[in-house]
Amino acid sequence: MSPTRYTKAGFRFIAIGLMLCTLLVFAGCGSDPAPEKSEPAKAPAAKAPAAKAPAAKAPAAKKSLFEIADANIDPDRSRVPAGKLTIGVHVTVSPDWMNPQTVTSSLMPYELMWKVQDSMLKPSEQSVFTYALAESFDMTDDFMSVEMRLRDGVTFHDGSLITSDDVIFSYENYHGANAAFLHDKTKTVEAVDERTVRLTFNSPFPDFIFYYATPASGAGIIIPKDYYLSLGSDNASRDEGYVAAPIGAGPYKFAGQEAGVQVEFEAYEDYWRKVPHVKTLISRGIRELPVRVAALKTGEADIVYFVTGELLQSVIDDPNLGYDPNNSAPFWLMFPDRNDPESPFNDARVRKAISLAMDRDWLSEQETLGMAVPTGNFIPYSWPGASQRDPDKYDVAEAKRLMAESGYEDGFEIDWFTPFPAVESLSLRIMDQLAEIGIKAEMQVMERPIYYEKLRSGLEDDKMSHKGFPGRQIVMSISVLAGSAAGYIDTFATCDGNNSLICDDRIEALWSKYQEVYDPAERTKLMLEAQDILHEEHMMIPIYINAFTMGVGSNIAGSASDYTSVKMSVLAGPNEDFKLK
Asked: Where does the record place the Solute-binding protein family domain (predicted)?
């Protein structure tokens, strides 16, 4: 069989919009109280235009989403890293974020992961898929086998050479998100030579690159086999030891941590792509927005994530600071007990009323100074296969009529409104708008690890409620899945999806058929049909494409936008490219 090389010239099948998942979940802000409906000053235009189909963080041309680009390698090895840069993260930082063997399919772990670790392929400014530790990636015409070759001479932080054994072990021992799926798909993993690995699949697996080369899994992140095995007698003990002292192949070496508070890294001068500019990087969790912004203004932090509301205006107005709107992905609402006939959320009219009761333009103005983009899809418009849907228009009168028609003229109380972690301010505003049509709730605030633990606990056996979110709830979510619309459907809208609160026979049938066909037009059609069901019946209610606004301090060289250009990511980077004045 002749190999088909996944390159600009030959990414034949994947370029048509195959699936996949990768939960690069992010988002958050401080829990500042919701102010009155006032008109704040307008910020400069956001990166994404306030139009029906804005470009969030994905490139406009679909082809570029599926290229494997060549790495941009700096041959100058004479640089001496200097200085210190601190990033204020909007959530608590977890040591587990440095262990690719257990990583969840979400984005925030890569705030630490991409400092200390490296992958065979990874996203870059050029493309979602870029050669990293691998110099080649070839799949056979029938999608039954893939062969990858390591760059010559790449090393781990302890100086040991990365070999095929490390690549094979990292894959076979992987036990994080989508591990069982990948292992079930794989027939054999073998070393062709010291630098080349071949994977053979049990059935055609054209979607492999999405699972292997994005944060859908950590199976493509290479760890030192011998070091990991030296840390204990089983994976549990090894994982515990590894997060205490990780060794990877990324641009920065682990230097120390205050668990749950901050992690410090030191430049790895032998990093294959370039010598990092900055000597010391610190990622510090600063959950409270006012504290985060104060740290930026005083210089305690050089970069901070997710600046919102009135404090966003203060950053924009400060001549010593910079910012980038950093538009990302939609927030949306979900209903864990939608299938329960006794639940008011079982009625599509109630769900539509909720959508009509939200003034998305006002929410965007209050939270992001108009930089967030109201949307009619829970999938970013620019992702391959995403339907281009206008948001529902704000219409409280029609919302009240639908509530009365469905038997809830006086409204009803629910157990909880559960925000996405650290998004209490937006949630309070939405709760106030829902109260206008009689829906009342208490807010259930969770830390991010607890939220994800509950989200991933799955539906009950009868599919009428959710194990992690029992009772009557509205749950908010946000996610970036690198790849295509199919990844969102798989993860959030199938009965067994990793983060799904939905189980619908029609969507299950469409998803099953999607996995059985290979015609690109048919695959796209199936995913558009699934989106039509989800949105026309308001199973998910999109709010707006978030402005994950990043603030930068006066010590940072260049503009904020210089550090928000990695495809399908809102994390600052690449880390080795940070520069200080």
From this structure: 131-454
Q: Which residues of 174-200 are buried (b: 16+ CB within 10 A; e: fewer)?
A: bebbbbeebeebbeebeeeeebbbbbe
Burial 104-143 (b: 16+ CB within 10 A, else e): bbbbbbbbbbbbbbbbbbbbbebbbbbbbbbbbbbbbeeb
> What distance in Å separates the CA atoms of residue 378 and residue 538, rounded to the nearest whole number?
11
Per-residue pLDDT, 79: 96
Rg of the chain over CA atoms, in angstroms? Answer: 23
Distance CA 220, CA 212 (A): 5
For the record, the structure tokens of 106 come out as 């979400």
478 has which bridge partners?
331
> Residue 343 and residue 221: Cα distance in Å, rounded?
44
Calpha distance 544→360 (Å, rounded): 7
Residue 554 contacts residue 321 (beta carbons within 8 Å): yes
3-state secondary structure of 436: coil
E strand or H helix that includes residue 54 = none
Distance between CA atoms of 240 and 102, rounded to whole angstroms? 11
Strand 262-267 with 252-258, pairing: antiparallel
Residue written as tokens 């010291």? 194
For domain 329-547, the CATH superfamily is: Dipeptide-binding Protein; Domain 3 (3.10.105.10)
pLDDT attached to residue 18:
38
Residues 486 and 478: their CA atoms lie apart, in Å, by 16
- Binned at pLDDT 50, 70 and 90, residue 482 comes out as low
pTM over 0.85: no
pLDDT at 214: 87
**pLDDT range class, residue 66, cuts 50, 70, 90:** low
